[in-house]
């Protein structure tokens, strides 16, 4: 898309607002005055820009995709960006955004924050700017014209990097404690590891993907303004409150690389961060038939082949769990273990189970030496409400090195897990740390574990 255009003079937010003041034809002066006093006062100064995200480009050392939504009148939004250290924005570059109108959320059955039934009202312009030519290992700041908030991302390029891995918070505006709990463990993890480079999610960030207002709330959380963000689609991100779901909800709320296979563009995608190729998958598609799962594997294998030489290690990510943390039974591990063995996948990430899991290094169903197989991990849930209780392992106890959930119930069936994972990647190792808030609201770090890793093209033993 648009990149590296010559700098043009950025419009100020005020100029943009003046330009887009709505007119009210056919109303009396009195009504107009009332509207000015009441109606426009409720149009908050920054309401027209929302769902602002910094998503990966294919090569995150030089390419980052920014996405945002704006009201239909905001037809000339632009992105202004510069390095974080450029305090006066003296070297800022302005890039006009490309937009298309999106109505996919409009009229979808949903709920208001006070729990009332309502239909989403959402017709907007879906904007994207794909930045290229960025400096590696550099912190950037950016603004959307018409919006005062300064946001940040950092490019890849350092030999070591850290990401904060979150999952399954099921953002739901009638129960704000979910997002609050999520923020509390994100804050705790960032205090433990201030040098986080990006945030990664294995899905279910909202309760119903069809509920636009839930996405708006999710992307209003502080992490979104401060970090590059990459994620996979979860079943909740896909679903409507009623009657199925759609990939479009995820596609429209992100500006992911459109390098997925046919029908999955912007939903399944791959990117390279440091020396790692990260491939994301869509379980809602794969679960529809064996052929659909085979199509995902064919695509992932082709990416691995075509990008050879640009990465040294491979991570794959999907939403559905590898194992069931209640008892250790095999879930999607069975579907992907042969693929991981064939392609020397280093780390396989998933969520959905709401129980944290880490396996030993595995190959051919056996525990093997670090660097000679795949570590499968499942992220815990983060909302303090919908956790699943980790139980004694009656299957795969040889493979699963660690599981965790809160043991305190939030209701008859579920537990209060509030957790996330820090992942530190160096050229030859991966350290993972489970961070959680315990039943006494104390921050805990558990399962601090480091594996030695080898490049994916290392001959298998
Ligand atoms: Fe979930």
Descriptive notes:
This protein is an alpha+beta fold. It folds into 2 domains: 13-37 and 46-153, Immunoglobulin-like (Sandwich); 156-452, Purple Acid Phosphatase, chain A, domain 2. Helix content is 20%, strand content 28%. The chain is built from 10 helices and 25 strands. It has helices at residues 13-19, 29-42, 177-192, 212-219, 222-226, 235-238, 248-252, 283-286, 290-306, 333-343; strands at residues 49-56, 64-70, 78-83, 93-96, 98-102, 109-111, 117-119, 124-131, 139-144, 151-154, 161-166, 198-201, 228-231, 270-273, 276-280, 313-317, 347-350, 356-359, 362-363, 366-367, 375-378, 400-404, 419-426, 429-437, 443-452. The strands form 6 sheets. It has a 7-stranded mixed beta sheet, with helices on one face. A 6-stranded mixed beta sheet has the order 13-12-11-23-24-25. A hairpin with a 2-residue loop joins β19 and β20 (366-367). Mean pLDDT is 91; it is low at 1-47. Fe (ii) ion is lined by residues 168, 170, 204, 236, 352, 354.
Low-confidence stretches: 1-47
The order of strands across the largest sheet is 14-15-16-17-21-18-22
End-to-end Cα distance, whole Å, is 44 Å
Supply the CATH superfamily name of the largest domain. Metallo-dependent phosphatases
Largest sheet: 7 strands, mixed
Q: What is the domain total for the residues?
A: 2
| Total of helices | 10
CATH topology of the largest domain: Purple Acid Phosphatase, chain A, domain 2
**What class do helices, strands and sheet pairing give?**
alpha+beta
The percentage helix is 10-25%
Average pLDDT score: 91
CATH architecture grouping of the largest domain: 4-Layer Sandwich
> What is the percentage of strand-forming residues?
25-35%
Q: What compounds sit in this structure?
A: fe (ii) ion
The top level CATH class name of the largest domain = Alpha Beta
Shape: globular
């Amino acid at each position: 898309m648009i990149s590296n255009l010559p700098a043009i003079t950025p419009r100020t937010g005020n100029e943009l607002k003046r330009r887009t003041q709505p007119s009210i034809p056919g109303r009396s002066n009195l009504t107009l005055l009332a509207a000015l006093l009441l109606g426009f006062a409720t149009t908050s100064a920054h309401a027209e820009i929302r769902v602002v995200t910094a998503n990966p480009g294919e090569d995150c050392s030089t390419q980052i995709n920014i996405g945002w939504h704006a009201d239909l009148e905001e037809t000339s939004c632009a992105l202004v960006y510069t390095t974080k250290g450029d305090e006066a924005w003296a070297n800022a570059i302005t890039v006009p955004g490309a937009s298309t109108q999106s109505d996919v959320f409009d009229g979808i059955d949903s709920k208001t924050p006070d729990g009332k039934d309502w239909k989403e009202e959402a017709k907007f312009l879906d904007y994207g700017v794909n930045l290229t030519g960025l400096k590696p290992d550099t912190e950037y700041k950016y603004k959307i014209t018409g919006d005062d908030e300064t946001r940040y991302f950092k490019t890849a390029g350092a030999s070591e990097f850290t990401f904060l891995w979150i999952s399954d918070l099921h953002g739901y505006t009638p129960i704000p404690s979910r997002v609050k709990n999520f923020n509390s463990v994100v804050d705790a993890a960032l205090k433990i590891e201030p040098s986080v480079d990006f945030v990664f999610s294995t899905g279910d960030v909202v309760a119903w993907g069809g509920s636009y207002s839930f996405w708006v709330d999710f992307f209003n959380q502080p992490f979104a303004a401060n970090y590059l963000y990459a994620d996979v689609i979860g079943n909740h991100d896909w679903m409507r409150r009623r009657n199925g779901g759609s990939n479009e909800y995820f596609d429209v709320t992100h500006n992911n690389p459109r390098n997925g296979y046919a029908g999955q563009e912007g939903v399944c995608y791959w990117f390279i961060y440091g020396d790692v190729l990260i491939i994301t998958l869509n379980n809602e598609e794969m679960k529809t038939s064996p052929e659909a799962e085979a199509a995902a594997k064919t695509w992932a294998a082709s990416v691995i082949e075509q990008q050879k030489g640009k990465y040294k290690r491979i991570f794959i990510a999907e939403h559905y769990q590898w194992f069931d943390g209640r008892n250790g039974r095999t879930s999607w591990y069975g579907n992907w273990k042969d693929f991981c063995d064939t392609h020397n996948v280093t780390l396989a990430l998933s969520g959905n189970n709401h129980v944290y899991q880490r396996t030993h290094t595995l190959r051919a169903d056996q525990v093997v030496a670090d660097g000679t197989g795949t570590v499968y991990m499942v992220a815990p849930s983060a909302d303090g409400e919908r956790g699943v209780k980790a139980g004694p392992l009656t299957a795969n106890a040889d493979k699963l090195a660690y599981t965790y959930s809160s043991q305190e119930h939030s209701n008859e069936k579920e537990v209060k897990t509030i957790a996330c994972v820090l992942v530190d990647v160096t050229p030859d190792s991966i350290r993972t740390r489970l961070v959680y808030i315990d039943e006494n609201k104390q921050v805990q770090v558990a399962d601090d574990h480091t594996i030695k890793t080898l490049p994916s093209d290392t001959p298998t033993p």
